[in-house]
Amino acid sequence: MEESIKEYLEERKSVIDNYLNIALEKIREDSPLYAAINYSLMAGGKRLRPIMLIATYESNFEDYEVVLPFAASVEMIHTYSLIHDDLPILDNSDYRRGKPTCHKIYGSDMALLAGDALISLAFEIISSRKLLEHFEAKFLLRIVHDFAELSGAKGLVGGQVMDMVTMDMDEIDENLILYIEKRKTASLFILSVRVGAILSGVSEDELANLTKFAENFGISYQIQDDILDETSTVEELGKDVHQDRKNKKATFVSLYGLDRSKVLAKEYIEKANSYLIAYSGKYKLLENIAKFTLERIK
C-alpha cells in the first residue's frame, strides 16, 4: 500500500504542478507580483489538499482532469495562507518548503500582496464560465460559497486568529485546541474533499460523512505537524521548527506531550476512516492516503 500511495501522490502532484504553471502564465506579463507569486506557489509542497480533492472525485469518476481548476485553486488558497502566516507580524518564519520565506526574498509588502493576489486568482478560476461545460451551475455556486466560507472567518482565517490570540495563554484545554485545529488546518481539507464530492454529485448523507472524514483527518494532520515542529529539523521539514514552543501556541503537544499526541494522531485517522466504512471500499484511496500520512511521525 505504501509504495502505491507514494507513487499516486507523486503522479498527481506532477499533474497539479503542471496545471499551476499554466494558470500563472496569464499574469506573467501583466504584474510585477508574478515573481513573488511564482516563487511561493512553485516552491514545492506536497499538494496534499488538491490531491485529496482529486482523489474524492476520482473515487466516483475516472476523468479527474476536469477538476484540476478547483484543485489548483485550493492550492492557491493554501499557499496564500502560508505566505501571510510566515510574515513578521504573525509567525515571523524564515523558511518554508525548504527555501527562504516569500517576505525574506521580496519584502513584506510584496509578500502580503502576493498572498492577496492568490486569493483573487483562485476565485477567478473557480468562477470561470468555461466550467459550465462540465458541471451544473448549482454545483459551481455551492463550491464558490464553500471556498469563501471555509477560507474565511468561519474557517481558515478564524482558526489563524484564535491561534494568534491564544499565544502565551495560561489556561488551555482540548476544546480550545480542537477549535483552532478544526479551522486553521481542517478547513482546507474539508473544502478539498467537499468540492470533489459536490462535483461528483453525491448524496447529502455521503457529503456529510466525507466532511466528517476530512475534519478528523485535518485534526490528525495538524497534530502530526505539531509533533514534527518539536522533533524535526529545518533540513528535514523544510521550514522553521520549534515555532510552537517559541510562540507558546496551544497545541496537543504542549498540552499532552509527544507520546500522547502520537496516539491522538492515529486515533483521529481511525475516526476519520470510520466515516467511509459504509461505502464498501469506494473511498479506499482516501483511507490509504490518510493512513500514509502517519508515516511522517514514526
UniProtKB/TrEMBL annotation:
One of its GO terms (biological process) is terpenoid biosynthetic process. One of its GO terms (molecular function) is metal ion binding. GO terms for cellular component: cytoplasm. It is an enzyme of class 2 (transferase). It comes from the Bacteria. Belongs to the FPP/GGPP synthase family. This is Geranyltranstransferase. It comes from Caldisericum exile (strain DSM 21853 / NBRC 104410 / AZM16c01). The lineage of its organism: Bacteria, Pseudomonadati, Caldisericota/Cryosericota group, Caldisericota, Caldisericia.
